[in-house]
Amino acid sequence: MTHLDSAALARLLDEGNARRTTCPSADVLARAASPDADRRLREEVADHLGRCQRCAEEFRVAHDVAAWAETNREARAPRAASRAPLGWAYAAAAVFAIAAIGLGAELRIERRQAASAIRVEQQLADARAANAELRRRLQDDQTPEINAPIVELMPLARSRSASGIAPPPTVVPASSRRVALILNTTNPAPGSLQDVELVSNGGVVWRGTGLKQSRSGTLSVLVPTTLLGGEGTIRVYAPGTRTVLDEYRLPVIR
Questions:
Q1: Domain spanning 150-253: which CATH class is it, in words?
Q2: Distances (CA, A) of 167 to 158, 219, 246, 253
């Protein structure tokens, strides 16, 4: 629950009054709700209420208070008695009720603004953390890496043993930022272009085109280790098709 000191409460009331400079005062609304209100006043207030939901709510409260006061007057006073004292009483009650509603509305606005500020601060903190991580990665990409691992891979179709079981994956140190993959192919065609994709944990994490065979019929791909989160494969396709030419087992990070 939000606790406000006298200074904060005064600030809220000042802000509320500033926002309502174009609205009728609580006293005007109370007089318009009174049975004694003249026609011109009622019409002017009614015109404003059609455009201001907040004042319409306050007028409804004032009207209810006026009706209550009128009922008490008829029950307790003779018909000929003057209406002025009781008129002042229900007008004062209406003003008090409207002020209470206004203060309650300001307090609710203050709580919503505080909650919104907390959300904005959290979003800014998340954005700063993401920006710092992006800067760190950018700096890493611009820094040469010493002893970057180079892994030569054989196609799964060729590397399987007589029992049909593929060999275990190559292990790459967790400190490595990139790993160079040299892919031996079962379809040597030096200079030919092929498509390639990395599949990890059952989903494609990267796809590229224009993979060119070297003079010795090998393919080379420099892969960030961030794409090697789990066991996966790298597939080579005939260009512009989904015909798999070769498939390799990706290294794992440990």
A1: mainly beta
A2: 11, 20, 16, 16
pTM of the model as a whole = 0.47
Nearest Cα to 211, choosing from 198, 224, 200?
198
Residue type at position 48: H
Structural element, H or E, at residue 131? helix 84-141
Rounded to whole angstroms, the Cα distance separating 204 from 200 reads 6
Please determine, for residue 85, whether its predicted confidence score (pLDDT) is greater than 90. no
Q: Are residues 234 and 196 in contact, defined by beta-carbon separation less than 8 angstroms?
A: yes
The predicted-structure confidence for 174-201, as pLDDT tens digits, reads as follows 888 889 999 999 888 889 999 999 998 8
Domain with CATH 2.60.40 in the chain: 150-253
The token pair that represents 193 in the structure block: 């272009």
Of 204, 202, 213, which is closest to residue 238 (Cα–Cα)? 213
